[in-house]
Amino acid sequence: MSALLFARPPRIVVASGYLVGMGNQPLLIDGEWIAASADADFFNASAPATGESLPEQFPVSPWSQLDHLLTSAARDARELAQTSPVQLASFLEAYADAIVTHTDELATLASRESGLPADARFVQVEIPRTLKQLRDAAACARDQNWRQPVIDTTANLRTQLEPLAKPILVMGPNNFPFAYNGIAGGDFAAAIATGHAVIAKAHPAHPGTTQRLAELAHEAATTTGLPSATVQLFYHCSNEDGLRLASDPRLGAIGFTGGEKAGRAIKAAADATGTPAYFEMSGVNPVGILPGALRERPTEIARAFCESSLLGVGQFCTNPGLVLTTDSAGLDRYLERVRATFAEHTSGPMLTAALPRELDDAVQGLLDAGATLVARGPAPSADGFYPRPAVLRVDARTYLADPARFQREMFGPASLLVVARDADELRTVYEHLDASLTGSLYSAADGNDDALYDELVARLAPRVGRLLNDKMPTGVAVSPAMMHGGPFPAGGHPGFTAVGMPASLRRFGALRCYDHVRPHRLPPTLQDRSPFPALWRCIDGTWTLGPVPANDR
Amino acid sequence: MSALLFARPPRIVVASGYLVGMGNQPLLIDGEWIAASADADFFNASAPATGESLPEQFPVSPWSQLDHLLTSAARDARELAQTSPVQLASFLEAYADAIVTHTDELATLASRESGLPADARFVQVEIPRTLKQLRDAAACARDQNWRQPVIDTTANLRTQLEPLAKPILVMGPNNFPFAYNGIAGGDFAAAIATGHAVIAKAHPAHPGTTQRLAELAHEAATTTGLPSATVQLFYHCSNEDGLRLASDPRLGAIGFTGGEKAGRAIKAAADATGTPAYFEMSGVNPVGILPGALRERPTEIARAFCESSLLGVGQFCTNPGLVLTTDSAGLDRYLERVRATFAEHTSGPMLTAALPRELDDAVQGLLDAGATLVARGPAPSADGFYPRPAVLRVDARTYLADPARFQREMFGPASLLVVARDADELRTVYEHLDASLTGSLYSAADGNDDALYDELVARLAPRVGRLLNDKMPTGVAVSPAMMHGGPFPAGGHPGFTAVGMPASLRRFGALRCYDHVRPHRLPPTLQDRSPFPALWRCIDGTWTLGPVPANDR
Questions:
Q1: Model-level pTM?
Q2: Where is the Aldehyde dehydrogenase domain (chains A, B) (predicted)?
Q3: Residue A220 included in any domain
């Protein structure tokens, strides 16, 4: 495997001042693989399954390299904004095809760095999802529906979303080496499909996988004739340089998926320059089990909860971290099932060495605050980053004394059950929920919970981006009607989604109005007859695939 | 007039701790007119035409009053989010009708506080525009198209924009006592139509007009049965309290129109809490006159420029503050016309005492930087806030030595002409433009400028929200296809517009997905058959007014 890694970079360039060491992995800057200077800092990823450091050394880029990335991307940004949608789509499709060809290799690399199963997770699920996103984005480039043209023939005004004509910085999280990767995930696909250069930051938990993806992306970009700085990659930088990058006025926008602490710092840096920045930072995803549902199907709901909570070692931003119910019929059977599942669950490893420790700390923090253990998974018997899954319980009175303390996200296979005395107290708990990506409500099939449902949903809905019925939150469908976001700090801006096209593409658009612009100068998508047969336009209040009516011209 | 002012407040309440003094004008808090406490600070507006202070004293609210506004609005926010669109529309229409009934009175009040002509400006232009905005917003509430529902029947996901369920703070500018007023303008109308409580801040330049509007709004809200804190008003507060208000987590969003300095401070406060905030802060609105157009119709363009520059005493955010051209045929005739118009132009007064002084300082600053005077209006012969209109000129080489210095907005009837040696140098000037709301290009009718146009527009378009051909920027049509905004700091977020419905309404929406939510629990706009016959929905990729097709249900 390490031989493969060393062999991979197709064009190592020893630029002036840069030196390629044995384990010194190069960055992708302006179409060339360039090694960091020898005096750079380096880091190694780890193999979660064993806890061992992986041999490849990845550079912590100094500002000079970040500046180089920015300069190159800014230079190509205007050309990319004018690049034909067909060419952008061809790139995305060629890249997807390359990922198909290298699926097994990529899955093996990602499994090595993440500890997640190569086949069950990557080959079967995450890589297909990533391919769908890249191809959906290509389709969106081809149909151009992300622009939402609005035409007023009376006032002679034509408006649509257009590229920012500046590069986009995409920073992916630790938990999706493909589907949210800075150089392969949804933000990347959305940025490219709308005609932007991407500066991708690898997550340091899977730099090798990201490097391999960058190679495939770069080859596809070269083959399809895109400018040399269309896709660029770095792995790491100091916090100070990262914030400097986020606030650089040469940047057009930022897409960030990850933890709240880093996200808040980056948001502050971007806000200072007025750079649009989109964040997906999670939350506890409250799941309410109403009394009728608890009585009706406690075991079924417990089974769904356990599956959702333990899926992917609990490392999802939509993990059900908070379950809310009442002390009523069915609770014992619910707990029994949860206890049995968690007690016997042998967990896979987490993504980094810090995560099991942080999970232990979070569990201890809840115990200190007055929660009790419902179930805890067995202690790990192997080396590696193995967590002990946990379900805790707290009564609503204790919870309500300090709701913020009990809503801190526990990243991993752990969840807190809040038990209210009755429906009244449950209502009060719903008054004290922080923002989350999702909120689920399980209610009785016979309608017995409907009155309470209405009261709870009025409190829950404004706090979440996605509202679910009788369903755990972990599945995030790639659909035009998905909303993966939420009020701050679950998301960055409540009006935008990170998943679901073309909506996610619109984050990277600037609204531009053409006021009495001569017809031959209008962009193709705004001309009387657009050359895009599947482009919906709102012409004088009517959405249509057709041209501007002749009598209006 | 002052008797009228004192007689106006319909219900003066002397709340505990509050005292109504003779000239002490009350705030509208939670449905009651409440006077500030006697120890509050007060301010007076001025009559620009004479420079005299007006007699009414308006309070500078302490934090306790702002907190009272917030508490009341937050309490009513959930109810407003559930209020029927018909009721919201009825309020907006009743309010518009009341403004119609009181047009003359309102125009007189506004003229007294602004120095702008009651009939020509307010009765003829700005009040009709305001009425159109209120009624358009009512129509948007009735048709619900701001929600943009997206339905995926296969994945059983239904998504739309929904109210934030928190109040919106609207801060209007000095230059539009009606059309952008915090309690009557576009942001106000958009916030109400989407089901939000509005906390309006009067601009201290026209508190009396704003108070009268608030009375009419409050009466209409009461008549139509809206919650008591639907419309609230304060006049002024300390900078510290204003920033505290902007960063209060009880607030759902902010709409701000005004100067860049205040806007940046408010944006930083809102950003810290993650509150969506929308800004319209102007810029210099570059107008390019290409060599062919200058040769072809110098006098016609000069006439258009003078009219646009002097309109409303130049106090528009779309004022043409920067004109860019080449030293070529037609320039002399252009200058001759501009010089003649400005030299003989007797200006009306500006909105506040500070503005003519600031304009003088700005003119002097350009002179110090190397610009020269083309024309200056006559010195004012009366007391009052009269400016001396000015056109300055600088060669492009001097401009390019410090482009930021020459792009500082001069609020008022003043503009800088940058003369490039040739087309090459003009291109370079366009490389150094800051963000603006608009960018205009005049080019030859015979096509001689087309090659240069293409080069300039590639540089100009990414820097502006609205691109105009052969047209000055001051007209901002109220149209669904308008974009009144731009890259920061001209606007707040490049994807949003402050004018043009329903787009401006979407700023106040939170995207929410219904994932497997039981059909009877879906909001009406997302049900298989929506009760809104004019609501366009994107169902499985097709925009339609119809129901979800039966075979998909």
A1: 0.95
A2: 36-445
A3: yes
